[in-house]
Amino acid sequence: xxxxxxxxxxxxxxxxxxxLGDGSRVAxxxxxxxxxxxxxxxNAVLGLLASETADEDLRAVLAEIQHALFDLGGExxxxxxxxxxxxxxxxxEALVEAYNAxxxxxxxxxxxxxxxAAALAHLARTxxxxxxxxxxxxxxxxxxxxxxxxxxxxxxxxxxVLARVYNRRAGVPDELWRREGKTPKPPxxxxxxxxxxxxxxxxx
Length: 204
Fold this sequence. Notes:
The protein is an all-alpha fold. It has one domain: Cobalamin adenosyltransferase-like (Hypothetical Protein Ta1238, Chain: A, Up-down Bundle), CATH 1.20.1200. Helices cover about 50% and strands about 5% of the residues. The protein is built from five helices and two strands. Strands 1-2 form a two-stranded antiparallel ribbon. Strand 1 (about 15-20) and strand 2 (about 25) form a beta hairpin. The chain starts with 16 loop residues before the first strand and ends in a 34-residue tail after the last helix.
């Protein structure tokens, strides 16, 4: 196999277009390229999170996810392809259950933050949600398999749980959300705070 990346600067995208895996060219502002970029950004943030991760189990999980996201990028790059499947979605669901089992139940909304790794996990979660929105928008315009959307949805759940895992292992408590100095009543499952942003539950 030849060297695929022997030439980095090609100038072929100077006209504002880029090539897809099937050889076609599309505008860099297209929905598909936007989704690709969001997934790539998510992968980069996870790489940053991995660099702040010492625990081998978490490093292995992040590496597994990064490879899956690269596969997702390949699927988005090739219209009609199906790379991610239900097995990858089920794997994320199993990880959510396993890591969440050892955490204390949430009774209040929490703020993104804590130790640096937890804060980065929360950042990755928000980027993941943005990537999910881009993939959903693409699916409204072009045929797209359901697995990528489901994968990103589950991944945001997992990143929320992992943020709490990072804090617990670092001995840092979750920062509870309070409004006007008062602790709110315990939220309903899947409920959203008044600002419409869900920082204590990944359910969506």
